[in-house]
Amino acid sequence: MKKIFFILVVFVAVAIIGLYGLDRYQKNAERQREQVAYLLASCVNQGILTLFRLQANDWKARPDYYIEEENRLGAAVKVLPDEILEGEPFETWKHAIKICDKLTRNSNLQHVTIFRPLGDFSAEEISNIYTLKDRGALRKREKTIHALHESAEAADRYMSDLRRDINTQLRAFRFSDKERESVLQAISSQVLDNYQQGNFSKKQADTYLERVSLFYRTMVENPKSYSIRSGSLFFYSSELKQKVEGLYGAVIQGEGPFYANFKQILVQKQIQSSNY
């Protein structure tokens, strides 16, 4: 009887220790999931904050601002792991750092795709009146305009591309379903749910760029129908003059809205307040 009682005591003790160990393991696993989720949510948020600074930039005043922001984003993301990690690094944490690095690199590539051509388009060599007859200058202008069409496409799908990239990276590192769900929930609730695609219009951007392209092509294709004197155009053809004035007027009038369009890629969601 004593032997049976002793066995029962040992069994209960082992069970209690096992349950304690299981509870401790589960709490540790949950804490690790929370740290991973917070790291990746913070990483995504830094990329979006960078976008907001870029879309607020005056590209005529600071055409290379995207370089400054690329460096700033890299520095901001680099310190996140040390600021967030509690305890020793674990396997999933190491994967999360790699995912953060990839997301940051892809964000920078996306930002360069969108904003570098805006800086190039703002350069004086694009609008230099003395190169209107130069076909080499036209090729450079057309190259920049083509890049801006790609900018508009990237801006138009910014949020959907970001979500796709997040999912792709999580699948690539084979997170468990619970880990992936934890990360996606944190990124959505802490970051993405606070923003939405803005009023950016790809159609508006493309239409303006087509007018700009037509203006420069028209000037190159009719070199003998006008001259440039003291920074002004003098036409020998009234028909060409009328066409160019119409095109140039549309280009000048559309310039402000064109740049303003790229300030509306993402916007913060408006929080509805209720009065009781």
Explain the overall architecture.
A hairpin with a 2-residue loop joins strand 2 (226-229) and strand 3 (232-235). The strands form 2 sheets. The protein has a two-stranded antiparallel sheet. It is elongated and about 85 Å long. The chain has helices at 2-55, 65-78, 80-84, 91-121, 124-127, 135-156, 158-172, 177-190, 202-221, 238-261; strands spanning 195-197, 226-229, 232-235, 266-268. It has 10 helices and 4 strands; from the N terminus they run ααααααααβαββαβ. It is mainly alpha-helical. It starts with a helix and ends in an 8-residue tail after the last strand. The protein has a domain at 26-197.
List keywords for this structure.
two-stranded antiparallel ribbon, mainly alpha, single chain
Strand content: 5-15%
- Please identify the oligomeric state: single chain
Largest sheet: 2 strands, antiparallel
Q: Structural class of the helix and strand makeup?
A: mainly alpha
Radius of gyration: 29 Å
What is the element layout, followed by pairings?
Blueprint: H1 2-55, H2 65-78, H3 80-84, H4 91-121, H5 124-127, H6 135-156, H7 158-172, H8 177-190, E1 195-197, H9 202-221, E2 226-229, E3 232-235, H10 238-261, E4 266-268
Antiparallel strand pairs: 1-4, 2-3
Helix pairs in contact: 1-2, 1-4, 1-8, 2-4, 4-6, 4-7, 6-9, 9-10
Brief write-up:
By secondary structure, the protein is mostly helical. The chain has a domain of 172 residues.
